[in-house]
Design brief:
By secondary structure, the chain is an alpha/beta fold. The chain is built from 15 helices and 24 strands. Helix 2 packs across helix 3.
């Protein structure tokens, strides 16, 4: 017997139509290079429909890939909807990728048109044309499929290159009619985003209308988590080109919230000012953003903030507690990946932890949280499908599945390295799960330090080091050791006005970790290298210290 419910497709145009009808009087705010702009939802939805008309006028075919190379702005948000709601596929391009990686993803996705912020055009155009302005048409050397480059004016100065492929969006909009949005196949591709490519070429994740629809509901209703509401004013600091903007390019339209977008003004002071002046209630970004903004909190009225979301990498407990002390609001920890759309878990306050002491509660807040409805999680013995118990002691690889979890990569041969035989995503993260379903990640499988056959968590060492008052950043890697295979090396960045010695830092760590976990050496560096999305780049550190000789390699620790 089958249910007698209507067959209602879970596609984005229905959400856009509802947002347009119900919330036309609400405001949308964004920064350009030099000023702050405002519009109404009614004006913005009309512009988004006209951008759909621009895609028609440019002859972008059905299923055509619409690239974006842009900051978080109103036009970029419009493209989040105009492309999939007219049957095309949005492809957000990471502006911080290395040139060869960016060229690879544009060609691999076969982007037909790319919308570029004017302030980013010089960076983009270096790869779009040779010095003479002519394409080379050599795969891997330049873009081979891009027919049009549409420039979005974000207030940056400068002349445009004289090239027939370049168009100004505002000029195209003058002749473009608003179009009706329609999409009936919920399993059709809606957008795509490539992984940051820390090893090998980036890999493409393709989201469907259905996956985005369900993921947005998950973001809105994650148990004890975000709970995005119509009354909220949300500011996604996380870039729109990173991991589907964590769902913050879609979920606010489901909820009817007002959006505040930082545009190219990404300096900590500018973000703090926008949070304060626009009375933002919810914001989201990676740890490096909140580290940089911590000194900007003093003397500001951020009382409207009710949630500060952080993901991308582990949140140091000391950082979260610093926000709690200054704002009365700890950082809300979440976990996810490009492959998980990206919401995989979120660490809200659940009743099971009521009554904990201050230190214990801080430890709980440092966890990655509980998967929402729609995400199944398990930890398994590495190299097997043997599920381990949720006792917060057994440690294994985290694997997930669900309706917004990737089943494969775009145009890549299916790999057992990424997906299990029974259909779960292998996240590459290692950790434990407590009886309440709260995930505690200890490391990436590739970042664990294996010493004498035992694993040492680089993340845990880093979090303890960054709790030292003199330490701004710390990253731990394994370096070769003739007896123990690997031993930990700590690379530390000190705060500008602070000093510390190796001996002081090791003494600080001694009561906090097992003796054999203590790094064999500490090196002081100017900055921890970062990936294109702001995470610590352990790969670069391992390359830099590949031949590093520990002080005493004869016995180890």
């Amino acid at each position: 017997m089958r249910g007698l419910m209507q067959d209602y497709p879970l596609t984005l145009p229905y959400v856009f139509d509802r947002f347009e009808r119900l919330f036309g009087g609400k405001k949308l705010v964004w920064n350009t290079v030099s000023e702050r702009k405002r519009t109404t939802v009614a004006e913005w939805t009309d512009r988004a429909r006209r951008i759909g008309g621009v895609l028609d006028a440019l002859g972008v075919p059905a299923d055509g890939r619409v690239g974006t190379f842009a900051w978080n702005t109103a036009d970029h948000l419009a493209l989040y909807w105009a492309a999939p709601c007219t049957g095309r596929i949005l492809h957000t391009l990471n502006i911080r990728l290395f040139p060869e990686q960016l060229t690879f993803v544009v060609n691999h996705a076969e982007d037909d048109v790319v919308f570029v912020d004017k302030s980013l055009l010089p960076l983009f155009w270096k790869l779009a044309a040779s010095p003479t302005g002519e394409t080379t048409n050599k795969p891997g050397d330049t873009f081979t499929t891009v027919r049009h480059v549409v420039v979005m004016d974000d207030g940056a100065p400068g002349e445009l290159p004289d090239d027939p492929r370049i168009h100004l969006l505002d000029e195209l909009l003058a002749d473009a009619p608003p179009v009706r949005f329609a999409a009936e196949d919920e399993n059709a591709a809606a957008s795509m985003c490539y992984t940051s490519g820390t090893t090998g070429n980036p890999k493409g994740v393709v989201y469907s209308h259905r996956s985005i629809y369900l993921h947005s509901l998950g973001v809105l209703n994650a148990a004890a988590g975000i709970g995005m509401m119509e009354r909220d004013r949300v500011l996604p600091v996380v870039p729109m080109f990173h991991a589907n903007c964590w769902g913050w390019g879609h979920a606010p339209l489901f909820a009817g919230t007002e959006l505040v977008l930082p545009g190219p003004q990404m300096a900590p002071a500018a973000i703090a000012t926008m949070l304060e002046e626009e009375r933002v209630t919810m914001t989201a970004g990676v740890p490096t953003i909140w580290m940089g903004m911590l000194p900007e909190l003093d003397g500001r009225d951020l009382s409207a903030l009710r949630a500060i979301l952080c993901g991308g990498s582990a949140v140091p407990k000391a950082l979260s507690e610093a926000y709690r002390e200054k704002l009365g609001q700890p950082i809300l920890h979440a976990w996810g990946m490009t492959e998980t759309s990206p919401l995989g878990s979120i660490n809200g306050t659940i009743s099971a932890y009521d009554g904990l002491g201050e230190e214990e509660a801080a430890d709980v807040r440092a966890r990655q949280g509980i998967p929402p409805v729609g995400v199944d999680a398990r930890i398994v013995e590495p190299g097997t499908l043997e599920e381990l118990p949720w006792d917060d002691k057994a440690t294994g690889e985290l694997q997930v599945r669900g309706p917004w979890i990737a089943a494969d990569y775009y145009r890549v041969e299916h790999s057992e390295e990424s997906f299990t035989a029974d259909g779960w995503l292998r996240t590459g993260d290692v950790g434990a799960i407590d009886p309440y379903g709260n995930i505690r990640l200890s490391d990436r499988t590739k970042d664990l330090v294996k010493s004498g056959g035992e694993w040492i968590s680089s993340v845990e060492l880093e979090n303890h080091l960054m709790a030292h008052p003199a330490v701004a950043e710390a990253a731990v890697i394994g370096v070769p050791h003739p007896r123990w295979q690997e031993r930990p090396l700590a690379a530390v960045v000190l705060k500008d006005d602070q000093s510390a010695t190796k001996e002081e830092l090791l003494e600080f760590l001694a009561p906090r970790v097992a003796k054999w976990w203590l790094p064999d050496d500490v090196v002081f560096i100017d900055e921890v290298p970062k990936t294109s999305v702001g995470k610590f780049s352990k790969k670069d550190l391992r390359t830099r210290f590949a031949d590093y000789q520990l002080p005493d390699v004869s016995t180890g620790s």
